[in-house]
């Protein structure tokens, strides 16, 4: 009887936790909407509602539908995908006939959003018990991915509006400790044109697609087991995207191609840069100062979230089949090459991104399995190293640049210690397969005399 009572209490506590998390997310969305409106732009709620009718902006709408469909049977999946494509086709024809302007040439995605909302209605009106809960979890997972993109776009907009000065000079000076890898990789990538830049840009831009593929593989048994696994990539991926922009606000950096080059993606410009140096001339070693930059370019460099996301994908493909393991490794290497080679990040950004990703991944795993002493120690250590990195970039860049033979290895050692701590701790958490039973030795038959 006590076991049943404890199970009921555990389920009640978990329901309360999900309710509280939902309330926090809703409050956060409202806060971002208000902040975005304050600067004259629609926020994530308005953009999401507009996508129900108007041509949607670039985003993982069909990726969200793919995640939702892990709770459906194959027949239901074909029906959902067909319905979404049918709705989008009709809306595209209507927009074309009406001469409506389609932003960025994207006309598809509204149908996926309608199907997800329709599935939620079906769950609430036509399903009961565990079946309803499972269906709503699938819808929530898909919509959360879609909302995360809107939240991220609003976060980046706010960083550009609220942080007029950036700390790129500090990070560039600190990057002397690692030998200015962005300048080096930038020249190497240009030497491989046009194939190298094209491939790395494709990988960089489609990171979310790779994450969805890995997540769908991890969740492939949900429809048969009628439950989600305790830990999967989506949680880590979304939490990295939620927490990372908060660090952007504390440590605003635009990146070498902007601060030391002509800019990219229609923002920045030489008029805002310290000088037009990237990637042909490494920056001089001078005392760093905060610098003013335009109000459009996101301050999204410290830490490198693309590095953090690519590392999360790599971690979650280690137990997958060989093809996915290879893809995870390739995506990580290509993403690191793109972040440096296109001038989007400094080398020290990547070091911080690795520590950030492992700390978040460890925290998510601890929340899933229970907070024990090794887990708490790992998360606390990763957080300490991450904060120490940011403080050193901000307050000790000249010392780091003057003594690269000491500061460079120390940076690598700090990152490696977190990697080692993560591997050592998580190996204890992972179940070890029981050895196969060995047949008992049989006595040899007696020989006839």
Individual helix count: 19
Poorly predicted regions are: none
The Rg value, from CA coordinates, equals: 25 Å
Beta-strand share of residues: under 5%
Order of helices and strands: HHHHHHEHHHHHHHEHHHHHH
Tally of strands: 2
Class from helix and strand fractions: mainly alpha
Fraction of residues in helix: 55-70%
How are the strands of the largest sheet arranged? Answer: 1-2
Spatial gap, N to C terminus: 67 Å
- Average pLDDT across residues? 87
- Biggest pleated-sheet summary: 2 strands, antiparallel
Shape: globular
How would you sum up this structure, described in words?
The protein is mainly alpha-helical and 449 residues long. 68% of the residues lie in helices and 1% in strands. It is built from 19 helices and 2 strands. It has a two-stranded antiparallel sheet with strand order 1-2. The N and C termini lie far apart (67 Å).
How would you briefly describe this protein structure?
The protein is mainly alpha-helical and 449 residues long. It contains 19 helices and two strands.
Give the arrangement of secondary structure elements.
Layout: H1 2-38, H2 44-50, H3 61-68, H4 74-98, H5 110-126, H6 129-162, E1 165-166, H7 168-174, H8 181-191, H9 195-205, H10 207-218, H11 222-225, H12 233-250, H13 256-259, E2 291-292, H14 305-316, H15 322-341, H16 347-369, H17 373-395, H18 397-402, H19 404-429
Antiparallel strand pairs: 1-2
């Amino acid at each position: 009887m006590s076991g049943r009572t404890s199970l009921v209490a555990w389920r009640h506590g978990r329901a309360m936790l999900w309710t509280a998390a939902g309330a926090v997310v809703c409050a956060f969305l409202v806060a971002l909407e208000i902040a975005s409106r304050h600067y004259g732009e629609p926020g994530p709620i308005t953009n999401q509602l507009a996508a129900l009718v108007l041509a949607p902006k670039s985003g993982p709408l069909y990726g969200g539908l793919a995640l939702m469909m892990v709770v459906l049977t194959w027949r239901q999946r074909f029906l959902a995908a067909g319905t979404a494509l049918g709705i989008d086709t009709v809306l595209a024809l209507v927009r074309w006939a009406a001469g409506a302007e389609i932003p960025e040439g994207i006309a598809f995605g509204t149908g996926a959003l309608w199907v997800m909302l329709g599935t939620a209605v079906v769950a609430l009106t036509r399903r009961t018990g565990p079946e309803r809960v499972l269906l709503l979890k699938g819808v929530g997972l898909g919509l959360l991915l879609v909302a995360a993109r809107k939240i991220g776009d609003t976060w980046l907009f706010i960083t550009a509006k609220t942080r007029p000065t950036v700390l790129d000079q500090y990070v560039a000076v600190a990057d002397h400790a690692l030998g200015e890898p962005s300048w080096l990789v930038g020249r190497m990538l240009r030497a491989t044109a046009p194939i190298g830049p094209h491939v790395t840009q494709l990988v960089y831009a489609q990171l979310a697609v790779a994450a969805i593929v890995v997540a769908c593989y991890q969740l492939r048994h949900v429809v048969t087991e009628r439950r989600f696994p305790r830990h999967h990539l989506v949680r880590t991926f979304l939490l990295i995207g939620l927490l990372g922009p908060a660090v952007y606000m504390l440590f605003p950096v635009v990146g070498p191609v902007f601060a030391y080059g002509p800019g990219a993606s229609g923002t920045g410009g030489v008029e805002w840069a310290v000088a037009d140096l990237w990637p042909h001339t490494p920056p001089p070693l001078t005392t760093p100062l905060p610098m003013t930059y335009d109000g459009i370019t996101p301050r999204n460099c410290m830490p490198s979230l693309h590095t953090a996301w690519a590392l999360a994908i790599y971690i979650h493909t280690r137990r997958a089949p060989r093809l996915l393991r290879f893809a995870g490794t390739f995506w990580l290497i290509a993403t690191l090459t793109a972040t440096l080679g296109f001038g989007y990040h400094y080398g020290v950004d990547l070091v911080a991104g690795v520590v950030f990703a492992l700390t978040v991944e460890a925290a998510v795993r601890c929340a899933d399995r229970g907070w024990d002493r090794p887990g708490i120690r790992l998360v606390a250590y990763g957080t300490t190293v991450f904060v120490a990195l940011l403080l050193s970039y901000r307050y000790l860049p000249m010392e780091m640049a003057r003594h690269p033979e000491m500061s460079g290895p120390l940076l690598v050692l700090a990152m490696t210690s977190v990697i080692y701590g993560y591997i050592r701790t998580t190996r204890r958490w992972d179940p070890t397969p029981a050895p196969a039973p060995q047949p008992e030795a049989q006595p040899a038959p007696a020989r006839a005399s």
